[in-house]
Amino acid sequence: MKSRWIGTVMLALCATLAMPGQSKEPSLLLYGGPIYTSSDPASRVDALVLENGRVAFAGPLELARKVQGAAREINLEGAVAYPGFVDAHAHLAAIGFAEMQLDLTGSTSLEDLKQKLATWSRAHPAGPIKGRGWIETHWPSAAMPTKEDLDQVVSDRPVLLARADGHAAVANSAALLAADINDATQDPAGGRVVRDAQGHATGLVIDYAIDLLEKLFATPSDKEYAAALEAAAKLYASRGWTGLGYMDASWPEIAELSELARRNRLPIRVDVFLRGADAQHVFDSGMTVDATNLVRVRGVKLYMDGALGSRGAALLEPYSDAPESAGLLLTQPAALNEMLQRARESDVQVAIHAIGDRGNRLALDGIIGTFADRPDQLKKRRWRIEHAQVLAAEDLPRLGRYGVIASMQPSHAVSDLYFAPNRLGTTRLAGAYAWHDLLASGATIAGGSDAPVEKGDPLMEFYAATYRHDLAGKAGPDWHPEQAMTKAEAIRAFTWGPAYAVRQEEERGTLEVGKRADVSVFSVDLFAASPQEVLKGHAVMTIVAGKVVYSIPSETSGGKHPL
Known about the structure:
Blueprint: H1 2-18, E1 28-31, E2 35-36, E3 44-45, E4 47-51, E5 54-59, H2 61-67, E6 72-75, E7 80-83, E8 85-90, H3 92-98, E9 102-103, H4 110-123, E10 129-134, H5 147-151, E11 159-163, E12 168-171, H6 173-178, E13 191-195, E14 201-207, H7 211-214, H8 222-238, E15 241-249, H9 251-262, E16 269-275, H10 279-285, E17 288-289, E18 295-303, H11 333-346, E19 349-354, H12 357-370, H13 375-381, E20 384-387, H14 396-402, E21 405-408, H15 411-416, H16 420-428, H17 435-440, E22 445-447, H18 458-467, H19 487-494, H20 496-501, E23 519-522, H21 531-536, E24 539-544, E25 547-551
Parallel strand pairs: 1-6, 8-15, 9-10, 10-11, 15-16, 16-18, 18-19, 19-20, 20-21, 21-22
Antiparallel strand pairs: 1-4, 2-3, 4-5, 7-23, 11-12, 12-14, 13-14, 17-18, 23-24, 24-25
Helix pairs in contact: 3-8, 8-9, 10-11, 11-12, 18-19
């Protein structure tokens, strides 16, 4: 065992000498709690030395002090360090803007939603009202709100309240009138204006039909976008995330992110996938990275279908609770294939939103077909399917076979258990949120949260991945507990998985000597904690590129962190 640590010390010294511009002394020395350098519980060490943004040493504390004696020391005081947790799929600006609009997350009933709308209306007496976060499936009525419901609270100005998944929204009559939406309005491609049995518009709009109402709301200024991006990044650092895969970003936001990074106001790494409308920019410039190495433009995000909760996910067979519908295609296969071919020629990554079994099949067909002449090249490209929620039995093994990454959000299985059985029926649930089967088939899972659809809490995601129950500890009889991940698999999904998904596994994802010094420190040992203990945990410290970007006050240092 001693020779092993001597070898580690020598590797550390060699790595330090090989890095140009490094000082002789390390920046930080972490000790005083379990430190896991990978998703393997056997990777636990006593000390970690970080120097010039890299891991310089991992091993016994005595050796760490001998080799790197001048480092500033941080006593973890029992907290537990891991390779940096990364949210592989989130919407950064939307997270920030969610803090600036009516938040309906956690609404327990239609009456609760109406009360929150009334409170917000009194506090904001002028201008249109926009909100997000309601989910009707666990309300007593289990019915989506309508224009009449909103009119009872606010009738003199437009109101638009999006469902948590962002794929459905409800508008009041004033908003419908202002947007010129009525009973005769035709459904746009990839969207639906919901109507009642008499053909009257109910106020509900699905997917691209939401765009008909967005024009009522002022486009945020560059300053507002920058503020939202910065607020969201700070929030994420405070939760223990060291990075985020920013899905569906606009091209102007790249400049805003890079400027925040240059001004030292971006605490986390951001891997950007541009929205389809801005795809030409990434096709022209390819995958790029800014001077700080915090902002990386990776590729393009495309949409195959909608969401399951709003019955927009494209299914091979009709919905069990709505036999007249099999969902929506937001992109037609021919248009998808054209975009995929352009992405291949430009050597940029592709991320395709696909939730229903038909949506996933078409996405897989498109991805695999694009490389039909060179299937050996597909694995190297690291193309991905975002969500991959419902898979037909014959399609599930295709991800591992062809190297298509499953970018999945475990908390969706917690939220969706209230309605997925009704939407899909018992048989299709076997291929829903099938993490175990995907991993067993050789697929790579990159874990994320889809915030602000979900909260964006790494510990909640770990809980969902390993326990597969709702936050009260309940799960339905057909919810397939065997599809849960092991603790090691879940940690890997949020550390190495996101790094692999953006071709960065040689730089990030583990705390090996020479890799980027991104560290997440939590109050709980995820290998030992019970599900309930995981939910009670919190982030203690977040380190990105060897710099502490977030920490809570130390209980033993008079409220001051050791730094």
